[in-house]
Amino acid sequence: MANLELLPINVAGEWRLGGGDVYDSLYPATGEPIARLRAASLADVEEAIQRADHAFRTSGWAQKLPHERAAVLHRVAQLIRENAERLAQQQRLDNGKPISETRALVASAAGTFQFFAAACETLEETITPSRGAFVTMSVHEPMGVVAAITPWNSPIASEAQKLAPALAAGNAVVVKPAEVTPLMALELAKLCEEAGVPRGIVSVLPGKGSVIGDAITKHPLVKRVSFTGGTTTGKHIAHIAADKMMPVSLELGGKSPTMVLEDADLDHAVAGVLYGIFSSSGESCIAGSRLFVARSIYDEFLTRLTEGAAALRVGDPASERTQMGPLITARHREGIERYVELGVSEGGRIRTGGVRPHGAGFDNGYFYTPTILEGLGNQARVTQEEIFGPVLVAMPFDTEEALIEQANDSIYALAAGVWSRDFKRAWRLGRAVQAGTVWVNTYKQFSVSTPFGGWRDSGLGREKGREGIFQYMEQKSMYWGT
Ligand code: NAD
């Protein structure tokens, strides 16, 4: 084992070694350990939540005026910016994304804190005119201890997306990062502390989801869980939430359709489709993984798309030129390889990719080539199941009706893309496709002011947007007699 110092976790403001198992966080590009920590134990979970509840009641965080909490959150944003390069490099090591992507994620985390600081300042209560011998007021209260459970694919962005609004609302927050990417949540907790969030209001408890995440979710003092991760885990959490009568938001999986019409700007569409599926190595809930192309342009489009995919620069995430890094773990890569084999056994043809790259720099990392499969229908398992990797299934379509029927024929409904120069058709398709987010002539663009979430098995609830703060608050109506 490499000689790494054990990293402390954060138990309601106390930085100490967890009581659980020791495990290493590996750099996916080389398989080398980059950090070692002792995970949280069940006793740490109990202590953190009890102390977080105490801090919620006694630290004064919930009672601060909105603009006072906003000032602290603005400082968190500022500290993220001051530490941006260090955080981007650390996130690169933690999950192997190319440095250009991790820099963008860090910038988005700072923007999220800034946005919710501003949203916090605008928190105001509404007074409705009298409808009798009274006036009514609708006020919002923080909930207490809330939990944020996050996946490994964009740690700093998903953690900021939950921490910032939950803190803005005045809660104490317990973060459970993914096992394989614990570092960014720990860094954010340090910056929150430095910015002036009171001790005990933020905890970070790394560890196994089925043990630590489960215990956090079931804890009676946890009043809300905001979860991002797989649909199976999300359904499990929803069952626990139902038993506790606890509100929950679930940002889950996807199998998003991208639709290229015959009048699309093809240069633009080729670049957008490639980015939509292969950025982040396809390890993205919103990856455009089902491609529908008008039959009249299918051959030309696929030829150009295949050339583009084969030319993508796969390699060292530290290089500014790299467009696609490795996959998160060796096991995840094996799962993706099995899916590609399944696609071939279902009658699919590999247009490009489908192998591990060879040569210097690829020996020990979990690299895989950008892969395009065709010859399959929308009912094939590889077309229906979330692969969460760089695998695109391409299909031709004949009519708009058939296109919409197939695009919507999925258990998921997270995102969709439409490529067309015809505004009216794009509008029609954008309205007809069932998805939480629709991109027209662009893909994977985000704004923190725009709500995000999925329909059906892609989730429940919305994050981001000014309203995002209210998911971490309870609403109360007050009647005043006159
Ligand atoms: P996962 O469901 O395995 O794990 C997500 C988190 O939940 C981790 O922190 C994990 O430790 C924890 N967890 C696991 N079992 C748990 C349990 N029983 N109780 C409580 N917590 C538990 O998902 P993953 O493999 O880390 O992430 C990939 C999935 O996340 C994909 O399906 C992807 O589509 C989805 N995702 C969705 C979004 C979105 O916004 N919709 C964003 C990113 C990723």
TrEMBL record:
<dbReference type="GO" id="GO:0016620">
    <property type="term" value="F:oxidoreductase activity, acting on the aldehyde or oxo group of donors, NAD or NADP as acceptor"/>
</dbReference>
<dbReference type="InterPro" id="IPR016161">
    <property type="entry name" value="Ald_DH/histidinol_DH"/>
</dbReference>
<feature type="domain" description="Aldehyde dehydrogenase">
    <location>
        <begin position="21"/>
        <end position="477"/>
    </location>
</feature>
<comment type="similarity">
    <text>Belongs to the aldehyde dehydrogenase family.</text>
</comment>
<keyword id="KW-0560">Oxidoreductase</keyword>
<feature type="active site">
    <location>
        <position position="251"/>
    </location>
</feature>
<dbReference type="InterPro" id="IPR015590">
    <property type="entry name" value="Aldehyde_DH_dom"/>
</dbReference>
<dbReference type="InterPro" id="IPR016160">
    <property type="entry name" value="Ald_DH_CS_CYS"/>
</dbReference>
<dbReference type="InterPro" id="IPR016162">
    <property type="entry name" value="Ald_DH_N"/>
</dbReference>
<dbReference type="InterPro" id="IPR029510">
    <property type="entry name" value="Ald_DH_CS_GLU"/>
</dbReference>
<dbReference type="Pfam" id="PF00171">
    <property type="entry name" value="Aldedh"/>
</dbReference>
<protein>
    <submittedName>
        <fullName>Aldehyde dehydrogenase</fullName>
    </submittedName>
</protein>
<dbReference type="InterPro" id="IPR016163">
    <property type="entry name" value="Ald_DH_C"/>
</dbReference>
